[in-house]
């Protein structure tokens, strides 16, 4: 829209007629269908919109328009939540974090799609080619039941971003071998084989002050071995800590076992305490900002891009930025799976918390809109488009796509994708998730900033969850 | 200026003393230090994005003939300002318009109209409160003040509901009305305190001379509170210009304002803060209020209270 | 002082004439209340709107008939405020007596339970009290710092000197920034790896400096940023008072050999007292709502959560609408008490002077 048309628009905004028409102008005739979508503003959703505009031809012959409201990430929840709960009924599609499902399904805003799947075998077939782990996380509520809601928009997992120029340097390799009696991981496969103990060694090994030798040169600034999310905001420590707890035999409160499953005794089990202790033990090797409790996924990514750390565990969604023109490490990267924990049987345990977002349909979407929406989703999940999406920097949870040998060639981290999908779990989807999350994040923050130990932290979390979930009947 | 006012023997006050360049030097030092964090934002807007976070922080676009060590100097570029309006959204494709021209227009249109509206309505009301006190005047004034006391997040749900019901959500009119109300409390309190400070003698003299109430208001009272009007306008503009929460929740794609869109740069393109982009948006966004304030400064500081004895 | 004579007697409360605004308000409130209870949200909103229009009409007719200029002048402002501010305020006040979550359709009257829960419940209350103490602390620190800085800056600019105009605008600029931009940039200035503060401190002391790794540092960081942004507001108000002091008063004082401090208290201060009070009032109210900077700089960590922060978590993130409303009304009550105290003290001094 140009400034001139805006001027005209503004001039008429004061006329009563224009005023009254603003609210209800979404549908015109049966031939024109507009789908309105609320999405966070970032490349995966921009790509979706671009593909739609350039390539989508509705089978029905109708004119279908996709109107996308790109909302900046930091305010996305606030905007969507206010729109849904106030009954604004503005959007047909909403990109939703998987944890939001319960809150918005119970509120009656997200549309169950079982009838659509049943009515359309094609659709069902496409839907079932999605890997079960992301499918359960993104689509089912109650969790892991056959009640479906969402489709993957951008599926995501945690991977290990590493600096090849540092970790593969001969000098560093030699010194690491001498100090730990183990090879310093350098290739993607070697990164895959890392345990958290190896990760800790890397952290300890690469603590360098400004001027110390680093990969054959004096370091220009203080340098650190490792980084991962340890921030108080949103879910920016839980997503990492959950992986530790699951890998080391602990558990979070399991919503699929409700109402018998307990929080107390589970959340603060000795295994969980041990896992959290291990997590906290790594904070000391991270850049100093971790001590303030603001080391979120973006801060650790920024430190990595600016060349201050050797390894960073972060979402694939932030991968593109590390390859961008202004990234100081763009041509020195190697990627691997997130470190795991060696099981008693000698097999690696790799549980990790799934990231990414599904998109869902809303309940006030009309029948004709729903029809077009289903066609659009089928098109979106089709192999061809998913391949294009992955080639443009997206990820795909559709089996035929990520198992295609071409897939790993799209991006350097894609080789970690398929094996990691097998190990993805998700946290709670219950409507109370935000309360649980806020309290947990606050408690983890106290531990991360050194104000209380792992045991006290998990005891507090367990007690709160037990009380809260009992109050709402999710624990008997 | 007000000839009628002069007729009744008002003279200008100038309570300010004169000071020389020595004073200028001291104030300049203080002002520059105070301005430094803003200057750093403006400089960031001119930095190449790879230099935005360099350590140590770069502080100057020029080495001032070798005065500043090279490590603190950055190479200025204008590229970031272009990025505000056109940038690559999807890696591998061409730059596309970001819509910021529209956002800037929206901010400009919505704030100026609503602040002016609030100024007119609020000045009338404050004159009423000051000159024709109602029964329970102070209570009314206090209730008006309470409208500013609750965090906006608490009252937002009924407002969204109301907007949707009457079809105002996403329209210019809705957000303008809301901002008008948002500015009223401050406008009324501020203007009332200015009207209260005026001497009633002059007004009464004018009334005895046969001037109508409207003429007294327009020709005697208003000219004496120009400083107040200017200050209120500036404050109102600054608050409205930067208002975030209402704008986030009540504007649509077409009526979105800059503070909402600005957060694109706080989490942009699949990464955290894009420092140079954020800085260039803020720098551009600063210019209009900066200019308005600069040009109203004369009014802000003329000291247009007239030299008659107070009350 | 001009007061308009009241030509007509006020109509009895229940007389149904067009200018009986008291009856209109009463009827409006009753009808709206009934509508809100009985009808769905959409319809009751319409009814409430119509009632507001009715009250406004009665008000105008009454004012016009009685040459009640005060009423007429004030009416448009009251009308806009009622629709856009007071009505939503009353709505959330009403909600605070119900058990209601905005993402849940059920609603049930619970009387004062939300208030009791907010103030005493063992899950919620300790956090609330902490937040309350933090809020009080922020209000005292940031308002004090703003008032002092603003006042000192105003004194600097109260004289006429070369380049005054250009220097003044530099000092005014911080308050023109959007809170997001200044908050995000201050988080950069404070950043231990990239920021200038840690760099300078590191060069001086030789040790790594992390401002926000403790409560004191976090509070200082937040207070400094907030005060830096808003001291210019105080300054401009004070300055407007300072420049309006008639020069001849000082000349007379100089002739009488009145000392400088005495000149300030007897001549200058009365001119800026009202504006200082206004600045204090508005900055206090804003400081009670402090949320953005606490969120942007430290995400409420290091025990810095304020009440406004808590309200955002409760009412927005967790959708516990009525509980959030109750908590905000507790705060509102406190702000009202405090501001009334200000106003009472100000008025007493006014009368004493």
Could you provide a short overview of the structure?
The complex is a heterotrimer of chains A (476), B (311) and C (353). By secondary structure, chain B is an all-alpha fold.
Secondary-structure topology with pairs:
The complex is a heterotrimer of chains A (476), B (311) and C (353).
Chain A: H1 3-12, H2 16-24, E1 32-40, H3 43-55, E2 63-71, H4 76-85, E3 93-95, H5 101-106, H6 114-119, H7 121-128, H8 132-139, E4 150-156, E5 158-163, H9 164-167, H10 170-180, H11 188-192, H12 196-205, E6 213-214, E7 217-218, E8 224-227, E9 230-231, H13 238-247, H14 270-283, E10 294-295, H15 297-305, E11 309-315, H16 319-323, E12 333-337, E13 341-342, E14 348-349, E15 352-353, E16 355-361, H17 367-380, H18 383-391, H19 399-402, H20 407-410, H21 417-421, E17 424-425, H22 433-448, H23 454-471
Parallel strand pairs in A: 1-2, 1-3, 8-11, 15-17
Antiparallel strand pairs in A: 3-16, 4-16, 5-11, 5-12, 6-7, 9-10, 13-14
Chain B: H1 3-7, H2 21-45, H3 79-85, E1 86-87, E2 96-97, H4 100-131, H5 137-146, H6 152-165, H7 172-197, H8 200-208, H9 213-224, H10 226-241, H11 245-250, H12 258-262, H13 275-301
Antiparallel strand pairs in B: 1-2
Helix pairs in contact in B: 2-13, 3-13, 4-7, 4-10, 7-10, 8-9, 10-13
Chain C: H1 21-38, H2 41-65, H3 69-95, E1 98-100, E2 107-109, H4 113-120, H5 125-157, H6 164-172, H7 179-190, H8 196-205, H9 215-242, H10 247-255, H11 260-288, H12 292-298, H13 307-317, H14 321-352
Antiparallel strand pairs in C: 1-2
Helix pairs in contact in C: 1-2, 2-3, 4-5, 4-14, 5-9, 5-11, 5-13, 7-12, 9-11, 9-12, 11-14, 13-14
How would you characterize this protein structure?
The complex is a heterotrimer of chains A (476), B (311) and C (353). Chain A is α/β, with parallel strands linked by helices and 476 residues long. Chain A has helices at residues 3-12, 16-24, 43-55, 76-85, 101-106, 114-119, 121-128, 132-139, 164-167, 170-180, 188-192, 196-205, 238-247, 270-283, 297-305, 319-323, 367-380, 383-391, 399-402, 407-410, 417-421, 433-448, 454-471, and strands at residues 32-40, 63-71, 93-95, 150-156, 158-163, 213-214, 217-218, 224-227, 230-231, 294-295, 309-315, 333-337, 341-342, 348-349, 352-353, 355-361, 424-425. In chain A, a hairpin with a 2-residue loop joins strand 6 (213-214) and strand 7. The radius of gyration of chain A is 24 Å and the shape is globular. Residues 6-29 of chain A have low confidence and may be disordered. Chain B has 311 residues and is mainly alpha-helical. Chain B has a single domain (3-10, 90-301), classed as MetI-like (MetI-like fold). Chain B has 13 helices and two strands; from the N terminus they run H-H-H-E-E-H-H-H-H-H-H-H-H-H-H. Chain B has helices at residues 3-7, 21-45, 79-85, 100-131, 137-146, 152-165, 172-197, 200-208, 213-224, 226-241, 245-250, 258-262, 275-301; strands spanning 86-87, 96-97. Chain B has a two-stranded antiparallel sheet. The relative contact order of chain B is 0.15. Chain C folds into two domains: 21-95, no CATH class; 118-352, MetI-like (MetI-like fold). Chain C has helices at 21-38, 41-65, 69-95, 113-120, 125-157, 164-172, 179-190, 196-205, 215-242, 247-255, 260-288, 292-298, 307-317, 321-352, and strands at 98-100, 107-109. In chain C, strands 1-2 form a two-stranded antiparallel sheet. In chain C, helix 5 packs across helix 13. Chain C is flat and about 75 Å long. Chains in contact: A-B, A-C, B-C. The interface between B and C is large, with 116 and 110 residues.
């Amino acid at each position: 829209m140009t400034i001139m048309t805006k001027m005209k628009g503004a001039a008429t905004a004061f006329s009563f007629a224009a005023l009254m028409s603003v609210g209800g102008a979404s549908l015109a005739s049966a031939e024109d269908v507009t789908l309105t979508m609320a999405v966070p503003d970032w490349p995966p959703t921009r790509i979706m919109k671009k593909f739609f505009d350039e390539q989508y031809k509705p089978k029905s012959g109708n004119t279908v328009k996709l109107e996308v409201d790109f909302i900046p990430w930091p305010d996305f929840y606030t905007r969507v939540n206010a729109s849904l709960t106030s009954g604004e009924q503005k959007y047909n599609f909403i990109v939703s974090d998987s944890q939001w499902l319960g809150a918005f399904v119970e509120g009656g805003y997200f549309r169950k799609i079982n009838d659509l799947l049943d009515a359309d075998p094609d659709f069902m077939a496409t839907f079932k080619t999605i890997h079960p782990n992301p499918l359960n996380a993104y689509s089912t509520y109650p969790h892991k039941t056959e009640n479906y809601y969402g489709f993957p928009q951008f599926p995501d997992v945690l991977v290990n971003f590493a600096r090849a120029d540092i970790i593969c340097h001969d000098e560093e390799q030699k010194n690491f071998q001498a100090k730990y009696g183990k090879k310093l991981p350098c290739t993607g496969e070697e990164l895959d084989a890392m345990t958290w103990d190896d990760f800790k060694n890397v952290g300890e090994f690469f603590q360098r002050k400004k001027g110390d030798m680093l990969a054959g040169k004096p370091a220009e600034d203080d340098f650190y071995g490792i980084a991962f999310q340890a921030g108080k905001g949103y879910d920016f420590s839980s997503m990492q800590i959950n992986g530790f707890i699951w890998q080391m035999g602990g558990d979070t409160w399991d919503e699929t076992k409700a109402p018998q499953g307990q929080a107390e005794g589970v959340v603060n089990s000795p295994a969980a305490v041990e896992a959290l202790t291990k997590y906290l033990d790594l904070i000391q090797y991270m850049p100093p900002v971790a001590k303030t409790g603001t080391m979120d996924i973006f801060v650790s990514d920024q430190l990595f891009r600016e060349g201050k750390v050797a390894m960073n565990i972060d979402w694939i969604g932030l991968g593109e930025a590390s390859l961008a023109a202004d990234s100081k490490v763009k041509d020195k990267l190697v990627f691997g799976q997130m470190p795991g924990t060696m099981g008693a049987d000698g097999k690696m345990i790799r549980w990790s918390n799934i990231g990414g977002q599904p998109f869902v349909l809303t309940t006030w979407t009309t029948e004709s809109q729903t029809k077009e929406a289903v066609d659009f989703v089928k098109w979106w999940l089709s192999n061809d488009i998913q391949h294009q999406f992955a080639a443009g920097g997206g990820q795909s949870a559709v089996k035929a796509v990520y198992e295609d040998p071409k897939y790993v060639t799209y991006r350097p981290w894609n080789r970690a994708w398929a094996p990691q999908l097998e190990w993805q779990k998700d946290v709670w989807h219950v409507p109370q998730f935000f309360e649980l999350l806020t309290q947990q994040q606050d408690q983890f923050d106290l531990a991360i900033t050194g104000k209380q130990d792992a045991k006290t932290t998990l005891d507090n979390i367990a007690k709160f969850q037990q009380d809260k979930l009992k109050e709402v009947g999710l624990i008997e | 200026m007000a000839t009628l006012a002069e007729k009744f023997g008002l003279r200008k006050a100038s309570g300010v003393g004169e000071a020389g360049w020595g004073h200028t030097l001291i104030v300049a030092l203080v002002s520059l230090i105070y301005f430094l964090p803003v200057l750093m934002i403006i400089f960031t807007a001119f930095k190449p994005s790879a230099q935005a976070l360099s350590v140590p922080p770069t502080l100057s676009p020029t080495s001032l003939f070798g005065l500043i060590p090279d490590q603190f100097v950055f190479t200025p570029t204008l590229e970031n300002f272009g990025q505000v309006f056109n940038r690559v959204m999807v890696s591998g494709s061409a730059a596309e318009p970001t819509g910021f021209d529209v956002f800037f227009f929206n901010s400009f249109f919505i704030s100026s109209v609503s602040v002016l509206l609030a100024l007119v309505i609020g000045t009338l009301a404050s004159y009423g409160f000051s000159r024709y006190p109602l029964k329970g005047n102070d209570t009314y004034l206090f209730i008006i003040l309470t409208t500013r006391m609750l965090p906006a997040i608490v009252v937002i749900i009924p407002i969204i509901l109301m907007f949707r019901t009457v079809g105002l959500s996403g329209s210019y009119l809705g957000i303008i009305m809301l901002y008008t109300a948002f500015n009223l409390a401050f406008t009324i309190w501020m203007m009332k305190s200015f009207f209260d400070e005026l001497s009633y003698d002059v007004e009464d003299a004018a009334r005895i001379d046969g001037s109508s109430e409207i003429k007294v208001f327009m020709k005697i009272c208003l000219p004496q509170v120009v400083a107040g009007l200017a200050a209120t306008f500036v404050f109102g503009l600054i608050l409205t210009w930067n208002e975030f929460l209402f704008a986030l929740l009540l504007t649509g794609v077409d009526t979105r304002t800059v503070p909402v869109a600005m957060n694109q740069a706080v989490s942009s393109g699949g990464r955290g803060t894009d420092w140079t982009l954020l800085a260039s948006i803020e720098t551009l966004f600063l210019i209009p209020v900066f200019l308005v304030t600069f040009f109203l400064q004369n009014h802000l500081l003329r000291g247009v209270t007239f030299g008659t004895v107070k009350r | 002082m001009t007061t308009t004579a009241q030509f007509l007697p006020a109509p009895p409360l229940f007389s149904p004439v067009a200018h009986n605004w008291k009856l209109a308000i009463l009827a409006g409130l009753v009808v709206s209340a009934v509508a809100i209870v009985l009808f769905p949200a959409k319809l009751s909103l319409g009814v409430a709107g119509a009632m507001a229009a009715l009250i406004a009409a009665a008000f105008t007719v009454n004012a016009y008939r009685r040459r009640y200029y005060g009423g007429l002048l004030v009416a448009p402002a009251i009308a806009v405020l009622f629709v856009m501010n007071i009505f939503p305020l009353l709505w959330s006040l009403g909600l605070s007596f119900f058990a209601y979550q905005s993402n849940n359709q059920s609603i049930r009257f619970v009387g004062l339970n939300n208030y009791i829960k907010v103030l005493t419940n063992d899950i919620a209350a300790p956090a609330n009290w902490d937040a309350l103490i933090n809020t009080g602390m922020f209000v005292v620190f940031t308002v004090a710092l703003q008032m002092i800085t603003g006042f000192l800056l105003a004194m600097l600019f109260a004289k006429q000197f070369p380049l005054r105009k250009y220097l003044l605008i530099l000092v005014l600029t911080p308050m023109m920034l959007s809170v997001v931009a200044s908050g995000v940039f201050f988080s950069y200035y404070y950043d231990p790896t990239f920021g200038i503060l840690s760099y300078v401190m590191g060069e001086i002391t030789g040790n790594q400096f992390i401002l926000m790794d403790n409560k004191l540092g976090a509070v200082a960081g937040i207070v400094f940023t907030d005060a830096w942004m808003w001291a210019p507001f105080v300054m401009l108000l004070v300055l407007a008072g300072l420049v309006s002091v008639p020069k001849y008063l000082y000349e007379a004082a100089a002739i009488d050999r009145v000392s400088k401090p005495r000149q300030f208290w007897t001549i200058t201060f009365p001119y800026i007292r009202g504006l200082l009070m206004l600045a204090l009032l508005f900055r206090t109210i804003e400081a009670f709502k402090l949320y953005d900077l606490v969120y942007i700089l430290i995400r409420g960590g290091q025990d810095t959560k304020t009440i406004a922060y808590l309200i955002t978590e409760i009412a927005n993130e967790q959708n516990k609408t009525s509980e959030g409303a109750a908590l905000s009304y507790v705060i509102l009550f406190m702000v009202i008490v405090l501001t009334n105290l200000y106003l009472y003290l100000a008025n007493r001094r006014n009368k004493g002077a």
